[in-house]
Write a structure and sequence with these properties.
Elements lengths: L3 E8 L21 H5 L2 H4 L6 E6 L10 H19 L4 E6 L6 H11 L6 E6 L22 H4 L5 H4 L11 E4 L10 H8 L3 E3 L1 H6 L1 H13 L3 E7 L21 H12 L4 E6 L8 H16 L1
Parallel strand pairs: 1-2, 1-3, 3-8, 4-5, 4-7, 5-6, 7-8
Length: about 300
């Protein structure tokens, strides 16, 4: 199935106000990933791709009113996506940090007539479901999904999500590393029985896991994929925020992407690639292969 992609190149690290947990440095440079990924050679693989650009403010330039600015700019990106996207195009948002997923998914939910027909698949080594008051780092890039499934404790952000999703609509793939033991985020996962597939389960029971994923795909009219490159083992993808957290290898992930690529209606966020870090060339090539796998 050949799809016509509409790329939204989003420069963003607005969700990184402090170094990630277990890290001494900010992930500066992640905002430049769209320019490195969408090369002329890559774009020649697609049929008449469209490209639009969006720039979030850098966090160090925001002296006050941080949350209202995040909310305003997120809404602006959502509106841009839905103003530009055409019915025959596939929405592809290239970040930047994971902040881009909130407006990207909200744009999808707004376009689909029934929010219950949107399935969400998250490839990630982290939960991304913190409340702001319980986050150890205070970084929004680890909170952006909570407003879709619960009342978020920052009103300006909570108001962005006009229609909540059920926790049964999310499937997470990755060896999720929660920030500490029995955190509020981990309890939210457990209490709401959010399904996570880790690499050990995949290797041990591959046939049944793929069957479960296929059933999830068939249950929804539209599938939105949030792909954080840090889901991969650092030997595969080192140019990201926390490369030491990933556990998956390319063959395992791409087996799952083969299933997703056959769905009739998908959209994608591809995030957390840092072209300034060691191993950037290999990580960028991997991200480009993900795009080729899902779109062509």
């Amino acid at each position: 199935m050949t799809r016509t992609p509409h790329f939204f190149k989003v420069k963003s690290r607005i969700g990184l106000t402090s170094p990630p947990i277990r890290n001494r440095e900010l992930n500066n440079g992640v905002e430049d990933a769209p320019d490195f990924l969408l090369t002329k050679d890559l774009l020649e693989n697609f049929n008449n791709p469209e490209i639009d650009n969006f720039i979030f403010s850098n966090p160090e330039d925001i002296t006050d009113n941080y949350w209202p600015i995040v909310a305003k700019e997120s809404k602006n990106l959502k509106n841009l996506i839905n103003q530009k996207i055409k019915p025959n195009e596939i929405q592809i948002v290239i970040g930047g940090d994971n902040t881009v997923t909130l407006p990207s998914l909200e744009a999808v939910v707004e376009r689909v007539s029934n929010a219950e027909q949107v399935g969400y698949i998250q490839f990630d080594s982290h939960g991304e479901m913190h409340q702001s008051k319980t986050s150890l780092s205070g970084n929004f890039h680890g909170m952006y999904m909570r407003p879709f499934f619960d009342k978020f404790d920052i009103p300006e952000i909570d108001d962005l999500v006009l229609e909540k999703l059920k926790t049964s609509q999310i499937l997470t793939i990755g060896d999720i590393l929660f920030d500490g033991e029995k955190t509020e985020e981990e309890q939210f996962y457990q209490q709401n029985k959010i399904r996570n597939i880790n690499v050990s389960e995949f290797d041990k029971d591959k046939e049944n896991v793929l069957s479960e994923i296929n059933h999830f795909l068939k249950s929804y009219q539209h599938i939105h994929i949030n792909f954080d490159i840090d889901v991969f083992h650092r030997s595969v993808s080192s140019a990201t925020g926390l490369p030491e957290d990933g556990r998956w290898f390319k063959e395992q992930i791409f087996t799952i992407l083969d299933l997703i690529a056959n769905h009739k209606s998908i959209s994608l966020d591809l995030v957390e690639i840092n072209p300034k870090k060691e191993g950037a060339e290999k990580t960028i090539k991997l991200a480009q292969d993900i795009l080729l796998k899902l779109i062509n």
